[in-house]
Specification:
Chain A is α/β, with parallel strands linked by helices. Helix content of chain A is 36%, strand content 27%. The two termini of chain A are 33 Å apart. With 285 residues, chain B is mainly α. The chains are: A alpha/beta (251), B mainly alpha (285). The interface between A and B is medium-sized, with 28 and 21 residues.
């Protein structure tokens, strides 16, 4: 089993406030890793560090070492736009652009220089099929994406992320704004996607972590308390705090 | 007993206040209405095809305002042509690129102050800055109006840039788009309405501006093409109104121009509302 991400002694500050303390983690390839923990524990912050989305926030300071496929992601040689192409992101609230379904999915490939219509058509179809939404939208690709339902919008956002052919997908509570039926569709989809992609998913829902993930990392107050196979962490947690959290004693 | 007299007092007070409010609204409305009707009644009979389509001639002693109409059009075009890229560019920089929020705040405050300065001050500065160097001409007037309208365009663009959801930017960055691509493809399309609204407001302001132009653009009524026109002195409609009324005593012509300007203002406000409604509808889709 090889790792796609390896993090050593990573700390992060928002101004004076230290949001992440000494994080060490190795994320295995083609698996689903869930980040759990109470609100404000730093799990989303850590997720957004992996593709450097935190660059957009002023006053963030990061120390330590984060390697993606053995490359230091903070090295000046790394093109951050290329990094984000390799490590895609799906957000908490579905955020399709106010343009057609087709243009939404084609946005990424176009950004990275693909202009050939036939090639774009292929990519759009492949991405929408991979995101399990092709059959629902194939007849209205030119319609505005904002006309889709919330669940469809989120799958469209997944398709949009897949269209740039990433190796890895970061999902920040991708189902928290959705109804139960849409949620289970996304969960099924995520389990299919791990055949091809490495997926890291922040979730507030512990049942969701149990249902879909292979590995689970438990964050608390900016620390990574425990990182284990999901089955193990939920059956025999090593740390008292993990046990208290998953048995519902706090959080 | 005491209660009854109190409630009676209250009631009459209520009635009195209502009458006072009614009076003030009546007075306001009738003043506006009077002004509108007065100008239109005085002006419209004097609007003739000949007035609109000829230039003034001392030989035939006829007055035509075609040069003034064209001058107005030229100055609007020249001003927008210069102020749009400047104002929109500044707005994009301030909202999307600038990292020093304190500095941005100061600039925004300065821009707001700038848009409240009496226009005659712009005229004075414009005269010294532009007219003294390039001569009194429409271009000097346009440059002065550029300074005057820059804050308007910048602020309206900025405000509408702020309405573009942050999640769009995040989505685009998350796909590996660079800063400029995000701005061009996701942010700018969302602020077109602000730019257009700013433009319409500016056109209205340019049409109505006289003080700043008296200093800088001159009073001539020569018929020119746009290039020659911008290099030559010329009166816009508002300046012409002043000249005809104050210096030549041609009140008929002055009122005709006034009526035209008023109709244009109403039209511009109407278009501005339409545009805002159109974009609000498109956004809520």
């Amino acid at each position: 089993m090889s790792n796609i991400i390896s993090v050593k002694d990573m700390c992060l500050w928002y101004g004076e406030h230290q949001a992440l303390k000494n994080i060490n983690i190795e994320i295995p390839k083609k698996s689903i890793t869930a980040f759990i923990g109470p609100s404000g524990c730093g799990k989303s912050t850590f997720l957004k560090t992996l593709n450097r989305m935190n660059d957009l926030i002023p006053n963030v300071k990061i120390t330590g070492d984060i390697r993606y496929e053995d490359t230091d992601i903070f090295s000046p040689k790394v093109d951050v736009n290329h990094l984000r192409k390799e490590i895609g992101m799906v957000f908490q609230k579905p955020n399709p652009f106010p343009m057609s379904i087709y243009d939404n999915v084609a946005y990424g490939p176009r950004t990275h220089g693909i202009t050939n219509k036939i090639q774009l058509d292929e990519i759009v179809e492949f991405a929408l099929r991979d995101a399990a939404i092709w059959n629902e939208v194939k007849d209205r690709l030119k319609k505005n994406a904002l006309g889709l339902s919330g669940g469809q919008q989120q799958r469209l956002c997944i398709a949009r992320a897949l269209a740039v052919q990433p190796k890895m997908l970061l999902m920040d509570e991708p189902t928290s704004a959705l109804d139960p039926i849409s949620t289970s569709r996304i969960e099924e989809l995520v389990m299919e996607l791990k055949e091809k992609y490495t997926i890291v998913m922040v979730t507030h829902n512990m049942q969701q972590a149990v249902r879909v993930s292979d590995y689970t990392a438990f964050f608390l107050l900016g620390e990574l308390v425990e990182f284990e196979k999901t089955d193990n962490i939920f059956s025999q947690p090593q740390d008292k705090r993990t046990e208290d959290y998953i048995t519902g004693r706090f959080g | 007993m005491l209660n009854r007299s109190l409630s009676k007092k209250r009631k009459s007070f209520e009635v009195l206040m209502k009458i006072l409010m009614l009076l003030s609204v009546g007075l306001t409305a009738s003043l506006v209405l009077f002004l509108l009707v007065y100008v239109l009644v005085q002006g419209i009979p004097n609007i003739t095809w000949e007035l609109l389509s000829t230039k003034p001639s001392y030989l035939t002693e006829k007055i035509g305002i075609l040069p003034d109409i064209l001058n107005t059009v030229y100055i609007v075009i020249a001003t927008l042509f210069l102020v749009l890229p400047l104002g929109v560019g500044a707005a994009i920089y301030l909202t999307e690129y600038a990292s020093n929020k304190k500095m941005v705040g100061i600039i925004e405050y300065a821009a707001e102050t700038l848009s409240g300065i009496p226009s005659i001050i712009y005229g004075l500065v414009g005269m010294l800055l532009f007219s003294n160097n390039m001569g009194t001409c429409l271009m000097a007037g346009a440059l002065t109006l550029v300074i005057m309208n820059l804050p308007t365009i910048m602020r309206t663009t900025q405000e509408s840039l702020k309405t573009v959801p942050q999640s769009y930017r995040e989505g685009a960055f998350g796909l590996g788009a660079g800063k400029w691509r995000v701005v061009r493809t996701v942010v700018l399309p969302g602020c077109v309405d602000g730019v257009i609204t700013g433009c319409i407001l500016s056109v209205g302001r340019i049409l109505g501006e006289s003080a700043a132009l008296l200093f800088t653009a001159g009073f001539a009524h020569a018929l020119n093409g746009i290039i020659d026109g911008l290099a030559a002195p010329g009166a816009t409609l508002t300046v012409a109104l002043y000249v005809y009324a104050k210096e030549q005593g041609e009140f008929g012509v002055a009122f005709a121009i006034a009526a035209i300007l008023m109709v244009l203002t109403v039209l511009i406000n109407f278009v501005a509302t339409l545009v805002q409604k159109y974009f609000a509808k498109r956004r809520s889709l």
